[in-house]
Automatic annotation (TrEMBL):
Taxonomic source organism: Actinacidiphila acididurans
Family statement: Belongs to the cytidine and deoxycytidylate deaminase family.
Transmembrane feature ranges: none
Name of the protein in question: Cytidine deaminase
A Pfam short name: dCMP_cyt_deam_1
């Protein structure tokens, strides 16, 4: 498999691919996510679709990881059912991932051109929630000098 940029965690991609192949179910569970923990473990989860905004697989993954005592993920990937392959995180998931794990890497791309990128690259000019709380110091203006 040809890759670009950072080397792709193929074991992680296989884990998500296997979960979605074996466990996808109707319209409710259509995407699997896999995350690499800092200690090397792999955690997996599936989305829980609901029209009110049921969590994407990436968000379910954060909770599944916590349930196993994993509070830091280094790499994340999502894979769609019906042979859709690797899926990029949606806008909400990009924001959540960057807030939970600012240094997490995300596998993106299609087919034989998978690559791994920093989540911050997927969300330039991101909103930093902590900077906008009433008791927070205002953020430093960029390039004040
Ligand atoms: Zn999402």
């Amino acid at each position: 498999m040809r890759t670009q940029g950072d080397s792709v965690d193929q074991e992680l991609v296989r884990a998500a691919t296997d979960v979605v192949r074996i466990r996808s179910h109707g319209d409710n569970h259509t995407v699997a996510a896999a995350g690499r923990a800092a200690d090397g473990r792999i955690v997996t989860a599936m989305n829980a679709y609901h029209f009110t905004g049921g969590p994407c697989a990436e968000l379910a993954l954060i909770g599944a990881a916590a349930a196993q005592g994993v509070y830091e993920l280094t790499t994340v990937v999502a894979v769609g059912d019906r042979g859709r392959g690797v899926l990029p995180p949606c806008g909400r998931c990009r924001q959540v991932l960057v807030d939970y794990f600012p240094d997490v890497r995300v596998v993106v791309g299609a087919g034989d051109a998978l690559r791994t990128v920093a989540v911050a690259e997927l969300l330039p000019e991101r909103y930093v929630w902590a900077d906008h709380q009433l008791d927070a110091e205002p953020p430093e203006p960029p390039d004040a000098g």
